[in-house]
Amino acid sequence: MSWEPVVGLEIHVHLKTKTKMFCRCPVGFGAAPNTQTCPVCLAFPGALPVANRVAVEWTIQLGLALGCEIAEHAVFSRKNYFYYDNPKGYQISQYDLPLCTNGNVLVPGSDGDLEVGIVRAHLEEDAAKTVHVGGRAGRSQGADYSLVDFNRGGTPLVEIVTAPDIHSPDDAKRFLQLLRQAIVELGVSDAEMEKGTLRVDANVSVRPAGSDELRTRTEIKNMNSFNFIARGIEAEVERQIAVWESGGTVEPQTFDFEASSGTLTPRRAKEEADDYRYFPEPDLVPLEPARELVERLRAALPESPVTRIRRIESELDLERATVLVTGGLDALWSETVAAGADDVAAANVITNNLVGAGVDPGEVSPEELAKLVSARKSIPRPAFDEAVAKLGDPDFSADPYLAQEAVSDTAEPEPIVEAILSANADQVDAFRNGKHGLLGFFVGQVMKETQGKANPRIVSELVREKLSG
Ligand SMILES: [Zn+2]
């Protein structure tokens, strides 16, 4: 029997507002622990919350970007739980009346678009950061002691919940890359997984392919890159298939994914379902965003990454278009092509060489880049790489590099080509017997011998000529 994975995601996004969700403490990283706090976010008796207007507007805008309906009446609720990262004994969140509902995001794919439903996007406050010292790294169980930093407590957080519409680890990754890019372009969050400003949990189940049942799902937490998320989902899908196929039953469970070993570690099983005893927060008025405000925010939305992928796909292909757009590189690509570079060559140089060299695309002059792209075959490889690495420098000029023409005279590499071929008789036989992938090996050897000065196109023609003779 073949199985279909069923995956829903829960995404938490830190908003980069200047101040916290319900008080005027600054939001930010790197300050000394417990210095960005006040009576409200430390829950002193009698302190009252006031909602951050910018956070509400940004959440509406994010909801609009996800195709959501914006509630005319949304309510903050208390989610009660007792833990030391939460001084109030409850988190202010949204429950039955969230700000954004019923959205959807299209993920362009090679065999049709994937439509991912957005169940809700709501606004809440983050908990404080805990650090567990001793014992197994990062875990509270077995730690010698735990420290709490309340600087993060009260940071505005948007929780986005998708429908279980995702059916492969790769689709989960592509959806998240698009979502992240849309969030970054809205300017509401840096959405960096390494810093914890974007956090993703995955709910995973499997079902016989072709059925529409929903079987017991499990949850995976603590995945801190898109690749780890894909690998975590893959590992859990395999585990569940093995359980069902051996006649067992998948139990509801929560796992941590450990990327180094690729394993899933179960958290202690919950003895009973969470009961957060939600009730409306009596200290805050309901949110009733004016329709003019919603329409003004809608009109201010930038062109979506999906729309740009579609447009660029028609000029390149889906794969390149997706890499350019989700990497925030498509504006530079368009300008470089407009400055005269070949579109495919420009895409390749930007997504491989430029990104590989760690150059900030925002600092690159499209005109200079276009010159380099056009001359990439006629200048020596080391000079080209050096030029690409310096593209982000102020006042960078491609001209000195363009002046370094490669050694293009066929007479010069020819003896080297012959020497390489006679030194590798086995590979020559293999090539002649159809292993044409070896061409790259011969060219590589010649380039090494000439310290990168030969023109690879001419070398490859020479090798081909000699081997067919
Ligand atoms: Zn505060």
List the helices and strands and how they pair.
Layout: E1 3-14, H1 53-65, E2 69-70, E3 76-80, E4 90-94, E5 100-107, E6 114-125, E7 129-133, E8 145-149, E9 156-162, H2 169-186, E10 198-208, E11 218-223, H3 226-245, E12 254-258, E13 263-266, E14 279-280, H4 291-299, H5 305-313, H6 318-326, H7 330-338, H8 343-356, H9 366-375, H10 381-389, H11 399-402, H12 413-423, H13 425-432, H14 439-449, H15 456-468
Helix pairs in contact: 1-4, 2-3, 5-6, 7-8, 7-9, 12-14, 12-15, 14-15
Distinctive features:
single chain, 469 residues, alpha+beta, Arc Repressor Mutant, subunit A, 3 domains, 3-stranded antiparallel beta sheet, 15 helices, 36% helix, binds zinc ion
Largest sheet: 9 strands, mixed
The count of helical stretches stands at 15
- Look at the helices and sheets and give the structural class: alpha+beta
Share of helix, binned: 25-40%
Distance between the termini: 53 Å
Ranges with pLDDT <50 over ≥5 residues? none
User: What is the ordering of alpha helices and beta strands?
Assistant: EHEEEEEEEEHEEHEEEHHHHHHHHHHHH
Please report which band the strand proportion falls in: under 5%, 5-15%, 15-25%, 25-35%, 35-45% or over 45%.
15-25%
Shape: globular
Mean pLDDT: 91
Domain unit count: 3
